[in-house]
Design brief:
Layout (H helix, E strand, L loop, with lengths): L1 H10 L23 H14 L4 H11 L7 H8 L12 H4 L2 H6 L3 H13 L5 H20 L2 H12 L7 H4 L13 H9 L4 H10 L4 H16 L4 H10 L2 H13 L7
Helix pairs in contact: 1-13, 1-14, 2-3, 2-15, 7-8, 8-9, 8-13, 11-12, 11-13, 12-13
Length: 260
């Protein structure tokens, strides 16, 4: 999850002013965690507890009302009895990475990803995006074979992963849909040679930068191993104590990607 959170933080300043280059300062004093981080940690909290995704997401999300949620999700958080609203937005995919780190059975991963998405994003594309992201994390950490990741995700979800970052970048625009975010984020990982390179790929597309980098960063961490120490330091210094507590508890229980 540090990989997902690092991507979110690094990409946060480029969401409102997208860029089309990989050449940018990795650290900026304006960087901060956003809703991607809060809700990723909410999913982790649910897994650590009773797997009540709705309760965990609703509770932690309301503690951070200014994290940068979309309008429909703000209304969901504001409701005393939140209901799914048929969303196909990429919010289901950006928060799901703990599922891919915690579980070791493909059917369980697909089911838990669906459950984590359906509390709000119950449109078929919202569920599909969450499942594809979680499965990509799982395959990256267990096979360490990009050919398998590409083939399995393409076969399961009919995503076109034969494209390249350089091919996507010129015409790509801001897109909050799962179907316009998840395949591109996976390709940013597939076209990378390191965690940092993967995050730079994602941000360089010039889209929903924090979410693209959050999804890509999770898969890259699963594949390449622990993120660079300076990025882990950025994450730890950026998080509030309660969020950091969830992060550390998750790694203690699920040490598939070791961090000090």
């Amino acid at each position: 999850m540090i990989g997902a959170i690092g991507g979110d933080i690094i990409g946060s300043i480029y969401e409102a002013r997208p860029i089309k280059t990989k050449e940018f300062p990795l650290f900026d004093p304006r960087c901060r965690f956003t809703d991607d981080t809060v809700l990723t940690l909410a999913v982790a909290k649910a897994i650590l507890g009773d797997r009540d995704y709705l309760k965990a997401v609703w509770d932690l999300g309301r503690r951070y009302p200014h994290a940068g949620y979309g309008g429909s999700f703000i209304r969901w958080l504001s409701s005393d009895q939140p209901r799914p609203y048929n969303s196909w937005g990429n919010g289901s995919a950006m928060r799901v990475s703990p599922v891919g780190f915690a579980f070791d059975n493909v059917n369980t991963i697909l089911e838990q990803a669906k459950l984590s998405a359906a509390i709000s994003h119950n449109h078929p594309e919202g569920i599909k995006g969450a499942q594809a992201t979680a499965l990509a994390v799982f395959l990256a950490r267990t096979t360490h074979d990009k050919t398998i990741v590409r083939g399995e995700i393409s076969a399961h979800f009919d995503y076109d992963l034969a494209r390249t970052v350089d091919g996507i970048r010129p015409d790509y625009a801001f897109d909050v849909s799962c179907q316009g975010t998840v395949p591109e984020a996976i390709i940013c990982f597939l076209d990378s040679h390191s965690y940092e390179d993967a995050v730079r790929n994602a941000i360089s597309l010039g889209g929903d930068s924090d979410t693209l980098a959050c999804i890509t960063g999770a898969i890259a961490e699963a594949f390449y191993g622990p993120v660079p120490s300076e990025i882990e330091t950025l994450v730890r210094e950026s998080l509030t104590p309660d969020l950091l507590e969830i992060l550390d508890a998750f790694y203690r229980r699920y040490p598939g990607v070791q961090h000090d």
